[in-house]
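S.,

Sequence below, as promised.
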Amino acid sequence: MRQWFDIWNVWNFLDKEELQAMGLRESVMGIRRILANEAAALGGHWDHVVLAGISQGAATSVHTLLNLNIPAGPQNRPRRLGAFIGFSCRMPFPGRTLHETRKVLGLEEAADGDEILRNTPVLLEHCVDDPLVLVANGRVLRDSLRGFGAQVEWVEYPDGGHWFNSPAGMDDVAKFLNKHIFGPTGTGQNAPTQLEAAPDAMDLS
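The prediction came back faster than expected:
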């Protein structure tokens, strides 16, 4: 079965944790290339790029964010992504400092400090009844990122399982992106449109 990286035991992610590193490293390198291409297509505006994922894809994206090195932008604009959004997500290799976490993958061209992480708005959503990635794992991720300096918006939902909560979860995503990308304080304040949360959103749970 195709996946972002190997996991020995889905009921205990710490079991033989070292096996996760190789596949995670390869996936992070691939996502970094995609992000660079997207930013180039946007005229170098990394702050218009949103990185998002669910479950293992979100866990991979977390390490991508931690190992991302964004070049200085025009007019000394803060180095950041537009936003990071994770659903049903956990922290691979928890309990480490930011430096120690980066050292696990040992990637070249990873950022030295925490500027990108501090400047990138983060939204994490987790359903309390998630049977695969327990909400306790999501809370560990939340606390880890906050400990690294990230400004994390954390939302728990009573139901939705190992998926998005609908419609409230999608409504919250729209509000988050409007605030940080399309709103007056976001990076795309000149954009003519805003995302709208549909009142009759499809149930994806």
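The chain has a mean pLDDT of 83.

Coffee later?
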